[in-house]
Amino acid sequence: TVSVLYWAYGTTMGCAGSKEAKGSTTLTLPQQDTEEGRKARAEELEKKRTEYVFETEGLVQQLGGVLPWAKDPLPHNEGNIGNADALPRLAAIGAKLNAFEFEGNAKAAFEAVKNWVGHSEEAPFELFDSIYAAGFELPYVITDRKWRSDYFWGYQRLNGMMPVLVELCEELPASMVAAGLNDELVAGLLPEAEGFDTLAGLIAKRKLYKVDHSDLVGVEHHDGRPWTAPVTLFVNLGAADPRPPARPWAGTDSFFVGHDVDAPENLPLFYPIAIQLMPEAAAVVVTPKDEQEHPGMWAVSRLHAGVIDASVQIFFEHILTTHIMNESYWVATCRSLSDRHPLHAVIKPHMEVTLLMGKNFRDTTYAKTDGSLPHLHACGRDGGFEIMRRRLQTWSFQQFDMRHFFGEFRKTMDIEGYTARDDMLAHYNAIHNYTLSIAKGLYEDEAALAADTELQAFAKALHDDCKFPGVVDAITTHEQLAAVLAAPIFVGGVKHSVVDNLAYTYYGYAPNVPLSFYVEPPVSEKKSFTLKEISDGLPPSKDAVLQVALVEANFFTPSSSRASSPTTPPTTSGRARTTRSSRRRTPSGRRSSTPWRSACRPATSRVCSSSTSRSSTPTACRTPSGTNVSTTPVAKEARGA
Fold first, then answer.
1. By CB neighbour count within 10 A (0-12 exposed, 13-18 middle, 19+ buried), where does 394 fall?
2. Of 636, 331, 373, 356, whose CA–CA distance to 516 is shortest?
3. What are phi and psi of 476, to 5 degrees?
4. What DSSP state is assigned to residue 75?
């Protein structure tokens, strides 16, 4: 990421007057161009506005016209740049998966499991495991059945595929209190130490967090597939904090198969203590302790909550505020900034194939009612767009600033063991420093910003045409420009890595993250469920294979190039690290004896593994010229904000 940034930096900085870039293009601000140059720019932009057109009909209207993408047909040059030659191949794969036309590993796996007639009580999840005997790589979560652990399930909300959903819980949710949430209900789940043994104490210490989907009541969904709007409470304990007591009910004959009996020592913990599947006073609050009198109750509640987590992660965090966001931004860029503008040269390297990828993604996957994603997800296509529309009500452009996002918005700067946050902050700070230096290098003062007619037209397009919530309609300060430039660069590289690159690791095993779960949610009363009932409620054989095939197709490298060991921790490249599991150690340096521990530690950077240290706070990234760009001071400052 940083290497690409400094390549762009090298082609644009120093152009307060003008600078020769690739070919014969001269990068110049419009107010510093010649009269002939300004005329040529105006003609160029007039032509581009006929080619780059915002879509205003169809599914865009379901989002209230916010973040419109490019209207078909796309400009010719958008299909002839970068690695666009790979996209038709991916589109063809997507079309075949939509029709359940399996090939390769997927075909062999489906042949092995297509005659499922149900799961056994003795080995309830064995049929899911058999999918991988046909050639698919074993996802990391299967190892030692760590996916069943509460501690590992909580870890995934920080450092798995959904690390941006957690927020500080400053007061107990009213519906949970009305349904009976109190200290007695969670006794035995909290450390038996002063300040840690009550919910009020945890709130005071900023140790209580939540994932809140209560705004998703009534979202349209597939007939016959349950839909909930859960609120889940989590406790965060630092490595030096007291441990919760043992959980005898998590023995080897339970869903947990021995995980979580004893909490791991000397590690940060982030674990769930309560779930309410609907935000209603009549809806029961479920805790892990319910496994004692109602076996399977907690597991079923956790699986239902996971379905909604995944729906928000895919449709809002991945599709809308990553793909669609950058599509809309790039259309505004091309309609407002001439190719001769230095800022166009800054933005362009990060937008290669953005429009073409978005079009293929819509045409073959998420915008079709029978597309693979709408088919797999309980919400379907229209429900997915309803999730986007609802979440836009509380979203703003400022949330792309990770200092604001983790600081004032989510208030999660105090969480220990949140390595995804640390990586995202470090990378955002590096990107922001870069874009701020560009802003100051190009524009001497506010008067220079105001005099740039193309820049002001660009700001107005983002505000009026893209309708970005919270974006300014006139750029008057260096900081405003830096933020506007940093957002798409961060989204196109860093955020997309965060919400996509670990898909096979976590979504590649349906029981870990089922996209639909068919067991009736225990909303109004507590009841027991057998492991067979739980496994029978997971996606059927065809859908389970489709889910694995879909996330495997995300990777451009063939599966045979990935390491085959299922015991090694994941990285964002989709490949397993080749470190021998026998040498794996915890952050404290001790060998790991608990199966899930190996994942609950700072892993190789999610985004920039070749240029970032393995520390949770990268100290420096190196530019192509060898210059070290320190990110530590800024990251520490942000962490203390």
1. exposed
2. 373
3. -120, -5
4. P
- Write the burial class of residue 430 (CB in 10 Å: 0-12 exposed, 13-18 middle, 19+ buried): buried
Nearest CA-CA partner of 11 in 34, 31, 27, 30:
27
| Distance from C-alpha of 330 to C-alpha of 67, rounded to nearest angstrom | 11
Other beta carbons within 10 angstroms of residue 591's beta carbon come to 11
Q: What is the pLDDT of residues 610-634, one digit of tens each?
A: 233 323 333 333 222 333 333 333 3
What are the C-alpha distances in Å from 371 to residues 362, 511, 582?
Answer: 9, 22, 42
DSSP 286: B
What Rg value do the Cα atoms of the chain yield, rounded? Answer: 25
Helical H segments across 512-602, by residue range: 531-536, 541-552
Instruction: Report how far Cα 212 is from the mean position of its chain's Cα atoms.
Output: 16
In angstroms, what CA-CA distances link 227 with 143, 365, 529?
29, 22, 18
Per-residue CA distances from 231 to 180, 304, 604 (Å)? 14, 11, 31
Q: How far is CA 365 from CA 110, 248, 579, 594, in A?
A: 20, 45, 36, 39
DSSP secondary-structure letter at 119? -
Give the closest residue to 439 by CA, choosing from 484, 487, 494.
484
Are 127 and 112 in contact by the 8 Å Cβ rule? The answer is: no
State the pLDDT at residue 468: 94
Neighbours of 480 (CB within 10 A): 16
Cα–Cα distance measured from residue 294 to residue 344, given in angstroms and rounded to the nearest whole number:
60
Residue 147 token pair = 């996916």
Residue 534 reports pLDDT greater than 90: yes
Query: Terminal CA-to-CA distance of the chain, rounded, Å?
Result: 25
Is residue 392 a contact partner of residue 469, using CB atoms and an 8 Å limit?
Answer: yes
Comparing 48-62, 205-219, 276-290, 356-370, the range with the smallest average pLDDT is 356-370
Strand ranges (DSSP E) for 578-632?
620-622, 628-630
Task: Tell whether the torsion through CA atoms of 151, 154, 156 and 159 is positive or negative.
Answer: negative
pLDDT score recorded for residue 16: 30
The count of C-alpha atoms lying within 13 angstroms of the C-alpha of 608, restricted to the half-sphere facing its C-beta, is 31
Q: What mean pLDDT do residues 425-453 have?
A: 97
Q: How far apart are CA 477 and CA 346, in angstroms?
A: 18
Quick one: average pLDDT of 478-506?
Answer: 94
Given the structure tokens 């032509």, which residue do they identify?
A: 47
CA angle 392, 396, 401 (to 5 degrees): 135
CA dihedral (355, 360, 363, 368) positive or negative:
negative
Q: Which residues pair with 276 in a beta bridge?
A: 231
Report whether pLDDT(585) > 50.
Answer: no
Tokens 């095939």 belong to 549
Q: If we measure between CA atoms, which residue out of 289, 369, 350, 380 comes closest to residue 486?
A: 350
Q: What is the longest distance spanned by two Cα atoms in the chain? A: 82
Look at the chain and count its residues: 641
Per-residue pLDDT for 588 more than 70?
Answer: no
Number of other CB atoms surrounding residue 221 within 10 Å: 22
Angstrom distance (rounded) from CA 314 to CA 441? 38
* Residue 210 β-bridge partners: 167, 233
